[in-house]
Amino acid sequence: MSKSLPAASNFAEVGLAEALLKSLNEAGYEQMTPVQASSLPLMLGGDDVVVQAQTGSGKTAAFALAILAKLDVTEFAPQALVLCPTRELAEQVAESIRKLAKNMANVKVLTLCGGVPTRFQIASLEHGAHILVGTPGRVLDHLNQNRLNFAKLQTLVLDEADRMLEMGFQDELRAIVAKTPSTRQNLLFSATYPNSIVQLTQQVSKQAQLLKVAETPTQAKISQVFYQLDDTDSAYAVQQILLSQQPQNCIVFCNTKAEAQRITDKLIGKGFSALALHGDLEQKDRDQTMVQFSHGSARVLVATDVAARGLDIAELDMVISVNIAHDLDTHTHRIGRTGRAGAEGLAVTLVGAQDDYKLRLLEDDFAEPIRLQALPTAPSSSKPLQSDWVTLQLSGGKKDKLRPGDIVGALTRDNKLTVQQIGKIKVQSSWAFVTVASSAAKHALNLINNDKIKGKRFRARAL
Prior knowledge:
The chain is an alpha/beta fold. It has 16 helices and 20 strands. The chain is globular.
């Protein structure tokens, strides 16, 4: 089905409330992205939509605005459910919704994901929540234990739906959908549109509007380079590229967990500020890794494709693929991590002998044949990528009424640390993270560990 609506270029034209327009302005949103311009009027009009668009297209803000626009803040019951494939993405989606809801009265957004004790989520559910963001497994667990009541649910969002199907969540999605009201609005977002998504769409909504949004102009600023790997060790090849290019930050994608960990260990051994992200890590270690990389206290992230989607890094200088991804859609997601927000990006692919068939398939999307280049040799004066920042973890968070301003106040109270020496701050439910200049890390730890914040003592440690 399709519907013709007048094109809008800015958020004020679609009838959003002043509180949402103010939040958009404070968050730096200006013109709508193509995804927002095409989907938001339909969603605000109550239509079901299926949106096919690449990572970084602005879809989160689109469905967040649609949810918040019709939220009844006086009704403390779940009115919207957003399902995501990973905890990392769920946390980022929840944070985006909170940011857009900051000028509304008392909007409660709750994440329901694995990797954290259920008892904390049970306590939060008992206090009521307007919007739930979670992973299918944990949401279904709460449903089966009768901890969730969807009687007031108005909106169901399936974010990164293709990824959820790839991860085997078909049965969980079917069971969750069956327990939601039939009168709900359905919003489904997917980077690809295989037959499995067509089938899922039919199960969720038979009258959804299908929107296929072309890649945005910012993605055209990505330069792709392909290097012949031959018999060269992949870890050595990655090292030479990083030394030659000297990016501010970089994600190195690997096809296996073992390869990701091996390359990370090699880079660390050579003096690089590098971290691994893969499925063998405990959830708390994954959370800490994400915070360190996004805060700039680690400059290289070596990851399997668990991080290809949902990792919210506004500016990423470079991505390196160690061999072509298992499928071409995943390759597209990898390179789409760089060159965002209008910045230029570099995507490097290391091509081995086993990649020949996939290289020929990939070449179909290029105007000219792909030219494999010889690996660069880094200048002898090049230094390993190291960070000038350290991330500290505090033993308190939102449940302790801790706010970013409280942490800044604690770090600057003796006038020895400047605001310029304090980087990003992230406050979660039970933990808080603050990134400080390496030269000030020892003093920052002393300030937190030897004094009180808001009358309470907290412990801090460097990650």
